[in-house]
Each structure stands twice: as C-alpha cells, then as structure tokens.
C-alpha cells in the first residue's frame, strides 16, 4: 500500500516509517499540517495515518475535515495521545475511520492499516447498499429508488444507512438513537419518529410500495417484502 504518514514527532515518525517499509509498504511523510494537507490532497494514497496535534496553522482534525469536504474518501487512521472517549468520538466524527492512542504496539497499527486498506480496495458491493429498488452509494452519497434520485439531509442519510444495513430486522428507537444520534438525546424524545416520518415522505411517493414499517411496541423495519 501507499501510505501517507503525517506525524511531527521525529522518533515516532522514524519508528512507524521503518516498520511500514519493512512490511512492504511505500511511505510518504509530512511533519506539519500544511505539508500533510498538500500531500493528502494532491496525491492518491491507500491509507493516511494522521497525528492529531501538529505544528502549523492546521491540526490533524482540520486536515481530515478539509479532505472530507473536498470529497476525498481515503481511509484515515488517527494517532493521538488523547485517549478520552470524548476525544475519540471527536476524531471519528471529524471523518476519521479509526483511532489509535499513543503509545501503541506496531503490530496493532499494522493490522488496523491492513483492515483499512482492504476496505479502500474493496469491490463495488462494499460501498453499495440495496433493498428492493432502493439503492445507496456510500461513496458518492447518492440515494435512488428506481430511476428517481432522493435528496437526504445528513442525518436522514445516516438513519437510512443504518436501516438498510439492518434490512428485514426490527431496530428499536434506542438502537437508532445510539447509532444515529450517538446518545445525544433523551430516550423519551420523539426525534426518531419525526425523522422516520420525513424519511418515509421522501422514500415512498404516490403508488410506491412502503419500505419503512412500524413494528408495534418494538421499533421499525426496512423491508421490501410484503
């Protein structure tokens, strides 16, 4: 794999670069945020290893957010000495795909990078979800039903993605709150029901078969079955 390492600690960078090259990978290294963003945006890489705290006018999370806004979907592993749960959540929400805290075992780093590399080189089926005539492309973030394009807000997209990944299964409101809203709402809120209602309006027009079903006293199910 071609790997970009953005790390300002010389000792860590030397250690990681040496290990990755010995494992057969090609490694590019940037020791500050400006150069890291330039290399990430201007050259293709299979995986990016991103330190959170970097010198310069942009840190690791800033780089990740800029890349994602530009449509760059390269898998990114965040390296950080910040090990609190809130910090890990912040890193993943910024667009990171994995988070590894320092100090770390090189074997674990290598295994995580291999997993991210397999994901990035996967087949079309790895980034496409389909239930009946409803289709979601996770890379382009395009949703269609038959030949009709469906425009979704970010939260609606995340909600539909979860439902499609659990098609033909009952998912509870608590499951949806945890997966889509990440514990940010009181379990008694009706936010799930409101978003499900809006999603139905976009998915089920005119005579189209209903896809999202309410399972009484349980939750919801996305299914194309009668």
Give a written overview of the molecule.
With 226 residues, the protein is α/β, with parallel strands linked by helices. The chain folds into 2 domains: 2-120, Response regulator (Rossmann fold, 3-Layer(aba) Sandwich); 125-222, Arc Repressor Mutant, subunit A. Helices cover 40% and strands 21% of the residues. The chain contains 8 helices and 11 strands. It has a 5-stranded parallel β-sheet with strand order 2-1-3-4-5, sandwiched between helices. A 4-stranded antiparallel β-sheet has the order 6-7-8-9, with helices on one face. Strands 10-11 form a two-stranded antiparallel ribbon. Helix 2 (33-42) runs parallel beside helix 3 (60-69), helix 6 crosses helix 7 (173-181) and helix 6 (154-165) crosses helix 8. The mean pLDDT is 87.
User: What is the N-to-C order of secondary-structure elements (H for helix, E for strand)?
Assistant: EHEHEHEHEHEEEEHHHEE
How many helices? The count is 8
Shape: elongated
Mean pLDDT: 87
Query: Could you list the spans in which at least 5 consecutive residues all have pLDDT below 50?
Result: none
CATH superfamily of the largest domain: Response regulator
Count of domains: 2
Q: What is the rounded Rg?
A: 20 Å
Tally the beta strands: 11
Specify the helix fraction band: 40-55%
Looking at CATH, which topology of the largest domain would you report?
Rossmann fold
| Terminal Cα span | 46 Å
